[in-house]
């Protein structure tokens, strides 16, 4: 019931582009690249995926829904759970981000975040933030938080305070419903909730510089639950591999890097470190599945 109500409210809200003007229909000025699948791995269909990342060769996943929210360390080849910790009910787990030997996680409502040790997922601290928590990632200097709006927040990893806000736009319009995040080779990748798309975001300007189209993958799954959307992006920096999945999907997909995305991670990080902040503010939405 809660998820159905959230979906109804979200579908009534603006998405920043109309149905006739989505990137799938009109984006001659912004490259759209269908995801090219390189490998298919198993994924736990009970996982309502909210966050996904690689750290030191291990795959970590956070799952949502009150009472079934967990953070897990997973063997990516087999899908077996190697370690797991629960987000205490009634909290709804959301995105995760790794910083050095710590894992940060956020929850949907209540502004409650948690800090875990890596790789054993032992609780070591808490932090607070305003509004909702959706997705997380980290660049060379910050934690990056999405809240379902078109604005990303950059947090100081040591104090968890907001040091920068970035408004994400495509063709001059705000891109709402930014969800799961991943920082890959100087770009921020973001799932768009309820759309089979990943936005490629320039971290300086906030402009969407490209799209990854997941619609063929979604169609191949033939999923009938409206909540089983694409959500989950993980960058294996060690092996230069990009993975995606979705909520309750049976597979984890390795996909090719989009054309034009540099593989010089250190160079991209240095470029981002020199970036001047772009500031924006926006009210978060009221509903989330």
TrEMBL record:
UniProt entry keywords in alphabetical sequence: Signal
GO molecular function: glutaminyl-peptide cyclotransferase activity
Region: Disordered, residue numbers: 263-289
Matches recorded under InterPro entries: QCT, Quino_amine_DH_bsu
Keyword Signal: yes
Signal peptide, first to last residue: 1-19
UniProt name for this protein: Glutaminyl-peptide cyclotransferase
